[in-house]
């Protein structure tokens, strides 16, 4: 007997393979899909969708493709570690050609003729490039050239780039300035908030055939969010394991104890999405569980602290959209205003083409290496940067000085005796 029969489910509710039937339309996923749909009726420029691993990009793309009208033809390229010639061959193969043993100029001519033919027949052509963060700069330049193919009336190829957050960093390269200028819309998929996570779990259970409204007890959801960080793929893994734990114990309901048992079996720690935010007025005091964090941002509005965030090595996005790691509700802040990228050596803040920009010491900056105590201004808001690494170095230096003083005292006492 499987747990599906035990819980009266028709199919596995938390499988990891993408399935459009199970897609849950959070506000941000719905907006990302709307952006992709806009490529069909607005042919100028293209759309970039980014998100962390497991955020639901592939499921979103599959759902988008499943709803395309008959007058739309598409190609999906997901193997992206290719040369420019191999990339063109991959596109043409998706469109039904056998483009091998041909020179690049011949491939471009084949693709150009195909696009013009489809346009003449009243069809729209969409190119979707998944895992686009792996594209080389030469291939991205090829994408730019393809986006410029047009008739005397309009462009004939609609393009969607989807990838991990590294794609945004790649697109900021000065050598890709012309490509970036063609981007009409971009959107970053963040984690589910606690309310969305609750709805997401119940939605997947309903699709799988569950008719029991409280199959997961209410006290489960906070624990699930704490350990999954709201990342859909991690939510699926934890919920599926918890169902197995409850089934093994003969329970009809998944309880908090089952979630905790699943966490232990998976050997998970609290997700980093949840360990970096804590209340104001605690500068440089690390809460338990944040020992791996390297820096802190104190957000001030009109001189008053409104929130404090600490974070580990990696990328932190700042903006007024709820999917950001540092959320600032303000008309002066763009949806995705800036990012802070940290490594073991330090942190860099970078403007993400925001409307109002970033200012350090009244000087507008595009990219700035942060130092402990720096204040970055965004409209009426200030971001005060604190570096845990420098405080640790200072502490180590003080310890070394104390040890040296103790040695000097010992040596002095020995000499006097």
Structural class based on helices, strands and sheet pairing: alpha/beta
Count of strand segments: 17
Side by side, the strands of the main sheet go 6-8-7-17-16-13-14
Quaternary structure annotation: single chain
Uncertain runs: 275-290, 392-400, 410-417
> N-to-C SSE series?
HHEHEHHEHEHHEHHHHEEEEEEEEEEEEH
Q: Kindly, what is the distance between the CA atoms of the first and last residues, rounded to a whole number of angstroms? A: 83 Å
User: Main beta sheet: strand number and arrangement?
Assistant: 7 strands, antiparallel
Secondary-structure map with pairings?
Blueprint: H1 3-6, H2 27-41, E1 46-51, H3 57-66, E2 72-77, H4 84-94, H5 104-120, E3 124-129, H6 137-147, E4 157-163, H7 166-171, H8 177-181, E5 183-189, H9 194-207, H10 220-228, H11 232-248, H12 256-266, E6 277-278, E7 295-301, E8 304-311, E9 314-319, E10 326-327, E11 338-342, E12 347-351, E13 358-360, E14 363-365, E15 367-370, E16 375-378, E17 381-387, H13 388-416
Parallel strand pairs: 1-4, 1-5, 2-3, 3-4, 9-10
Antiparallel strand pairs: 6-8, 7-8, 7-17, 9-11, 11-12, 12-15, 13-14, 13-16, 16-17
């Amino acid at each position: 007997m499987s747990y599906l029969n035990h819980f009266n489910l028709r199919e596995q509710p938390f499988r990891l393979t993408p399935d459009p039937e199970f897609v849950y339309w959070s506000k941000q996923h719905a907006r990302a899909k709307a952006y992709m749909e806009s490529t069909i009726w607005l042919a100028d420029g293209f759309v970039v969708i980014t998100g962390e691993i497991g955020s639901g990009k592939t499921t979103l793309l599959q759902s988008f493709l499943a709803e395309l009208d008959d007058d739309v033809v598409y190609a999906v390229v997901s193997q992206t570690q290719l040369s420019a010639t191999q990339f063109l061959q991959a596109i043409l193969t998706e469109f039904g050609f056998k483009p091998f043993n041909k020179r690049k100029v011949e491939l471009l001519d084949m693709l150009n003729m195909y696009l013009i033919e489809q346009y003449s027949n009243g069809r729209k052509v969409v190119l979707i490039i998944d895992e686009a963060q792996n594209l080389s700069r030469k291939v991205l330049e090829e994408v730019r050239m393809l986006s410029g193919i047009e008739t005397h009336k309009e462009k004939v190829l609609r393009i969607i780039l989807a990838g991990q957050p590294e794609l945004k960093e790649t697109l900021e390269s000065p050598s890709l300035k012309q490509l970036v200028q063609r981007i009409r819309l971009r959107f970053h998929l963040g984690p589910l908030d606690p309310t969305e996570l609750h709805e997401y779990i119940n939605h997947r259970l309903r699709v799988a055939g569950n008719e029991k409204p409280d199959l997961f007890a209410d006290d489960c959801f906070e624990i699930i969010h704490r350990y999954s960080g709201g990342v859909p793929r991690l939510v699926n893994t934890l919920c599926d394991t918890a169902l197995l734990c409850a089934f093994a114990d003969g329970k009809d309901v998944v309880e908090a104890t089952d979630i905790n048992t699943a966490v232990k079996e998976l050997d998970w720690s609290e997700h980093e999405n949840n360990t970096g935010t804590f209340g104001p007025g605690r500068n440089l005091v690390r809460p338990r569980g944040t020992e791996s964090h390297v820096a802190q941002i104190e957000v001030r509005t009109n001189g008053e602290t409104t929130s404090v965030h600490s974070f580990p090595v990696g990328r932190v996005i700042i903006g007024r959209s709820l999917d950001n790691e540092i959320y600032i509700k303000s008309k002066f802040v763009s949806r995705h205003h800036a990012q802070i990228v940290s490594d073991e050596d330090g942190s860099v803040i970078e403007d993400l083409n925001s409307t109002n920009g970033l200012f350090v010491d009244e000087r507008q900056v595009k990219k700035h290496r942060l130092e402990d105590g720096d204040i970055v201004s965004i409209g009426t808001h200030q971001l005060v940067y604190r570096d845990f690494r420098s405080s640790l170095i200072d502490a180590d230096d003080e310890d070394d000085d104390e040890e040296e003083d103790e040695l000097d005292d010992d040596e002095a006492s020995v000499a006097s005796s």
